[in-house]
Amino acid sequence: MESPRFLDENMPKAVWPSEIKSQSGPSGGKAAPPRPAKAVSKKRDEDASTDVGEGADEWTAAKTLVKPPDQLELTEAELKEEFTRVLTANNPHAPQNIVRYSFKERAYKPIGYVDQTAIHFSLNGNLILKDSDEGRRQSMRSAVSEKASLETSAVISEETEIKDEEGTEDTQAAGEEEAEEAGAAEEAEAAEAEEPPPPRVKEQKLANQFNFIERASKTLNNPLRWEIHDAYVEELQKMEKSKEKEKTKAQIAKKEEKKKGRKLTSLESQSDDITKISKAAKIMERMVNQNIFDDIAQDFKYFEDASDEYRDQRGTLLPLWKFQYDKTKRLAVTAISWNPKYKDLFAVGYGSYDFMKQSHGMLLLYTMKNPSFPEYVFSSESGIMCLDIHNDHPYLVAVGFYDGNVAIYNLKKATSQPSYKSSAKSGKHTDPVWQVKWQKDDMDNNLNFFSVSSDGRIVSWTLVKNELVHTDVIKLSAEGTTMQGPEGLQLQTLGCGTSFDFHKKIDYLFLVGTEEGKIYKCSKCYSSQFLDVFEAHHMAVDSVSWNPYHLKVFISCSSDWTVKIWDHTVKTPMFIYDLHSAVGDVAWSPYSSTVFAAVTTDGKAHVFDLSINKYEALCTQIVVAKKKNKITHIQFNPVYPVVIVGDERGHITCLKLSPNLRKMPKEKKGQEVKKGPEVEIAKMDKLLNLVREPDSTAGK
Prior knowledge:
By secondary structure, the chain is of the alpha+beta class.
């Protein structure tokens, strides 16, 4: 395509053919006289004026080429010369020499990739999603405005019809006076006027149909993402359908209640009768069981092993009742706790210590009055790993689960579900909860308990306004276990808490046992520091417990086969006992400061009395006969001379201590026997002085 040509002052002016002839003439001749040329120019001007008109000067002025003063004067060869340029997407202003520090190679390295985007224009949009609250409000407003516009247009059309009718009456009166032809024309005009004008419809604003959530508007980066999205959508739809069904069921139930109000009252009376019968049936069941197990009940109450006099201070454990439940055969006993108010009632938690065989859990409460069937039965989705009964409110049971949750069961409520339970939002543990302990109510008289878990957190749970509120008391950091992270970062691993116990008198002081074998002495007041660290065991600390009488002494047991007794002011243990098998649990007796019992995985129960024999157990007895079965826990009854032992098969065995295992000080003639905590503290102090004596003599 040729480039447009513009008029230039330097270009030759257009000349008519007649003018050329008159100017040039024949070659070598004289020029023609000027008269004919004037005539021709006159004609030409007339023709031009008739063709172009008055705006000829303006038209020629617009077509003239305006040259800038600094334009180069180029020859035709220079104008025809071609210069090729390649367009690229690179930003010429982008920096090419950016350098960053590499932690891996410990040197500055240039970055090869540079962002080449150059933003020339940006505009923030005001698109709103249809499904959002603002989008719904706008659609509602537009609908209301459309309705209002339609109503106003209808009113206007009615008014125009009324006016047109009045006008037609006037035109008919005028038509009678005028001629027939004029009357016919006016009638036609009136008929046209009778037709109402079409209502003015307000122009509807077209809403933007683009939806950011639509899959068609997105690029297919990862098909897995859509599968996850579809799965979530299906789950949400199922939940909505189930909610709708529940609503409809509730509505139907309400209607039926209204219709059958009289029948419901009769049913309620029936339920009251059933509760009365159930109480009577429970008493009858206990009476029947007392008759069946009469010999065991007699042994529990009256039997004292007379052969203890000939055993040289050794004792025995007499098996009494065996508690078992059909639904807990494949579950292990993971926790035992006596009720502080009802001395014959105890709670048992069921779960599994094998992380490969995790299933449901159960919470049962048995009484020694009825060994055939539990008093309370609660089931849970996750295995129960620990429990504790409140001292002041014996109907409240705090429970820790394998999945990291904690819960509170209320025995007064006739429901199988916990009254309060933690969740992922309320700060649950990420690993199994190994122990829970009730504590004194806080300043606002809210119920309060603590939990310890393998995730290294010790958490305080407070019951505030019918929900559990958590507070992290301390995080266990394992010393000397820092790991090398990416780019030279130091990652500190958390210690795994397995057990803990609070001091009986000093409220803020508590001990924590860990999987590494260490025992930390901690305070509720310090969240980032430990008061002391004991290098206690070589394997996980399974249990740690303060002495109920002596304020300085505590005991610990571990899977490294040992039981150790400590003074918390001394870093080394006072006593060490090797039981030749992994120790599952240890417990102090409630009647003496020097008696404790331990259970091992080989099925044996060991009872020690340090005031009689400091070197070995007074009683070592096999409680579980089967090889594959292991004993997991042991607890002393707070009043009666019995212990209960739990195993991996879900069985609870009640054992009576022989007289040698619960010796009290002998009465001397003419002297009163001193009893009470002071005597027990003196007994323990005497033992500790014997142990410390060599050190003190060496120091002298």
